[in-house]
Please model this.
Amino acid sequence: MIKYIIHAEVPFLQFEDHYLQPWIDTMQPTFIVKGRHTIHSDCFKKFEDLKKELHTELQSLDSRVCLTSDIWTASQNLGYMAITAQYVDAEFKIKKKIISFKVLEYPHSGFAIEEETMRCLTEWGLRCSAHILNILVQDGMTVIHTAIKKIRELLKHIDSSVSRLPMFNSLAKGMGLASKSGIYLDIPTRWNSTFQMLREALKYKAVLNSYAPKIF
Model:
């Protein structure tokens, strides 16, 4: 009955209907319909049991788990994020399970999405090599955090006005370097974008050193 209630999405309030028990009596008089609070508790108990079974299955997998996410806003302007796990089980069958469905904190930035994804992975005991690598690199970059911040702020200053890039390019041309059509800025939570920003900054180090005293 609980499986049917969950699958058919039967409202718990239906079990308070006065006509339900008399109808059940015509088929099986010894079956007593429980109240909505008991049905509610039984459904959540079933959910917890299924969650434990899925957790055990995911921990024993030899295959990888692929994740997809979906984000949307409800009519109450609340953001929701669902995460779906897809994998091949021991019997070589493709499985698709929703492992997270939660309110997403505003603003729905890349950082907020990453945080919710990491909470989900931690809850299910799944490891994400990209996230682990990001943590390691971010931790290593703390020793040059001040320098990275200065470079980022300088590049933001150049990028914040269309009149500043020609000035930057003029200095670059005078030093035999190619002009740039735009300034690359990193996303602080993504180490590879910070690496790319620093690589570009190192290439134009002399230009930046010459440009900075003119502004600051």
